[in-house]
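Appendix B: complex inputs.
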Amino acid sequence: MSVILKVDNVKAHYGSIEALKGVSLEVQEGEIVTVIGANGAGKSTLMKCIAGVMPKSDGTISYHGTDITRTGSDKIVKMGIALVPEGRQIFSELSVMENLKMGAYTRSRKEDLSSDYDLIFGIFPRLKERLSQKGGSLSGGEQQMLAVGRALMSRPKLLLIDELSMGLAPVLVESLFEAIANINKSGTTILLVEQDANLALQFSDRAYVIETGTVALSGSSKELANDDKVREIYLGG
Amino acid sequence: MSILIQCLISGISVGAIYAIIALAYTILFGTLKTANFAMGDIYMIGMFLGFTFYVTAALPFVIALILSIIITVIVLLLLERGIFRPILKVSSLYLFITTIGMATFLRNAAQLVFGTEAHTFPALFGSTPIKITENISIMPQNLIIIGVAVILVAALFIFMKKTKTGLAMSSVSMNAFAASLMGVNYSKITVITYAIAAALASIAGVFTAPIYTVTTTVGASIGLKALIAAVMGGFGNSAGAILGGVLLGLIETLGATYISSAYKDAFAFIFLIIILFVRPQGILGRKSIFKV
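Resulting structure:
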């Protein structure tokens, strides 16, 4: 297995507030890696840094060995990294179909997208029923499906997911995680940030624990799920 | 009765002019969330360029029109890159104020280049009114302007709905952050949006030159009216800009005919105030559907 993503000592600021104080992590091709941590630990900032929508003040990020620290998000998407952002960020006035079309923005106009649509409707049949509905009129769970589907339209090799479970019913979250596991099985590497540490550890190979802008712990998800400190702080004892 | 119909016809043709410029304002605000108060003077520049190429240089009309569009687009893009963009990085409030200053600057720069005297632009298709009935008629130039407005609106709607770039512009207008995650290059969209706005303003400028006197101050009042139209319709909403433009044209003409022509300009503002009281978001403006 080769390293698909390497984050090395990355720092980032919001004004004078340092959100990331030197984060390092690695993702191997084919893995599901999760980053857990409390609210405000810097998880979302890390994802934005990787996706190229947040400037880094220090450190490097490389993808398949290529330095992408200063690369713009448009090129990063083209290279094969897509982010499902926190809070879904659906285009509320565009239809489900148009939202998916936007996901394929970086792909050539001539490419046939029908196999991609089929793939996404295979994973999320609900989206097919809602094709002409406006994104903003979907339920929270459907919006999350659309956000994942939209990100898949760029055919990412590395899918970044920020807070898949946020604001959704537990049953729905479980099935979304299963969908992510299936996407991973078909060859997409996944890095996900999650507040629901229980689920995240259950569905991932390896995990990093972020605390106030630095990596506090890392290891295999099984190990961390049994770690006393992790159990106490993130898994509720 | 014939007076009323005549009024409606004139109102719609004046409204069509407001609508085109209102669209220029609204496409900038809707897509980039930045209001640019210099659009009235960009319209004036388009008009003067049209005058220079068509009357002074005696070029064929189509060539004069195309040259005016190209140069107006270049002027606005240079201003965007050289002035608006660096200032926007500081604050969007500074940009608002800068564009107000820019309007004055452009007006004075135009006086320096084109002189202060007023010019007349010959009517393109004669000045014999087309008689619809015995008492109702329309000037050929007005008919052309209505036609041009309809074509521009249709073209813009097709562009926004059917092309990849248009869809990207819509997504930027709804959620610029999500659009950048899709790989949309924001500065490319900025350039395209400004280019469309400049093209709309200059087309309006060239086609309305025969109706108004060609002076460097023409943009100030027309630009303000168009801004009112855009706000009335729902700032950032294209359909609202068109509706606002036509309504404003009708109100002015009806008010001038039936109440008092001296207060023609006041009607626009009174109507704006009433609308903003009743519907602060404008006639077609709406709060976007948002679920968390």
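The longest helix of chain A spans residues 170-185.
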